[in-house]
User: What shape does this take?
Amino acid sequence: MKPKNLKNITCTGKRVFVRSDLNVPLKNKQILDDYRLQAIVPTLDYILQQGGKVILATHLGRPKGQFDANLSTRLLIPWFEKHGYSIDFASDIAQAEQKSTQNFDTILLLENLRFLPEERYSPNTLEAAQKLAKKLSSLASIYINDAFGVMHRNDTSVTLVPEYFDPEHRGIGFLVAKEIETLENLKKHPKQPFVLVIGGSKLHDKIDMIEKFLQAPKSVRIKTIVAGGLIAQAFLYVQGYNMGIAPIDDQTQQIAKKILTQAHDAGVTIILPSDFYLELTHNFRSRALLIDQIPSNGVIVDIGPQTVDIFSHILAQAETIFANGTMGIYETPAYAEGTKKVLQAISQSNAFSLIGGGDINAAAHLFGVAKDIDFCSTGGGATLAFLGAEDPFEDLPGLHVLVK
Ligand code: 3PG
Assistant: This one.
C-alpha cells in the first residue's frame, strides 16, 4: 500500500497542515542554499490554487527543545516574500490557533518545531508528545507530509500528528511523491558497480545507516563505499591512525569497527582517504599530510589531492552513485577543494548520479554542478534509510504511519 497523494485530496476551503523539511544550511542567519525551499513550492502552489489554507511547519537545525534566534523559521520569511508568497508567522501554538482560520491566501508559518521539547519524544515522554500532536492537529483538517528529509525520524509532527487525521485526510505532498518514485526505481534497477560516497559530520546517524545499507538485499547492495569527512576519520582511527582532535567517542569506535567487519563479510570495499589537509592555523595547508603523519593537535578540514585522485578514478568507473555528505568544510573556500573535485567527478561520470542531504546539495549548487546530477534528493539520512530498507513503507516511521 502507498500513502495517499495530495493530488487525490481536495483542499478547497480546508486548512492543510504541511509538515515540510525546510532545514536549509544557514550562516550568519543567511540561507546558503534554497534547494529545500524550491522543492516545496509545487505543493504550496497546489494547495493555494485550490483555495486551501497552508499551515507550514518545519524544523530547522537541532535546537534541543529551546528557542535559538539563529534557528528561527522567521529567517525563512524573506525568501518566501521574495518569491511572491504572503506569510503570516506564529511564534507559538496559541498564536497559530488564532491565526489558522484567517486569510486563506496567506501561508501561516509556524516557529521551528524543535523549539518545542515535545517534538522529539521517547516512550517516557510519549504522553506529552501526544498532547502536542493533538494541538498541532487541531490547526487543520488535512495533514500532508512533504518532509522527505525526516521520514526516518520518530518525531511528533512526523508520526504522531497524522494519527489524528483519518486516512482520507492525510497523505504525502509532491516532493515526497517524487522522491519515492525516483528512489524506488533506483532500488529496482541499480546498475553495478553501485558506489556510495559518504561524508559529512552527522557521525552517529550515518554510521547506523551504512549498517542498514550493508544489510540491504543483495541486488541493491553497494559494491564500494568511498568515505570522507568525520566518518572516514572514525574508520581510520579504529585502524590505529591518529586523527588529531576529531571527536571519535567510544560508541562511535565500536560501531565503526562493526561496520568494517560487516562490510568485509558482505564483500563491500571501503575506500578511505590516504591524505588530508589540516586547519590553516597549524600551517600545514601548503601540503597535505599522509594519514600516518597527522599530529595529535591537528584539525582535519579536507581530503588531500592523492585521495581526490583515487576517489575520482573509482567514480569514473561507477554505473550508479549515491553521495551523502561532504568531504570537508566546504563552506570555507580554503577547505572546499576535496568536496568540489569529488562532486565534479560525480557530475562528469556516466553513472546514474544521486546526491542527498542539505550540505551536499548546497555544495553542488555552490560549485555549479547540481544541473549535471541526475537527482538531487532533499533527504540525507532519510534517503540512506530508504535505499537501505527492505521495505521503506515499513521501516521509515513517517511513511509507515501513512500506510497503516
Ligand atoms: C536533514 O538535514 O537531513 C534533515 O533535515 C533531518 O535533520 P536531522 O538529522 O537533524 O533530523
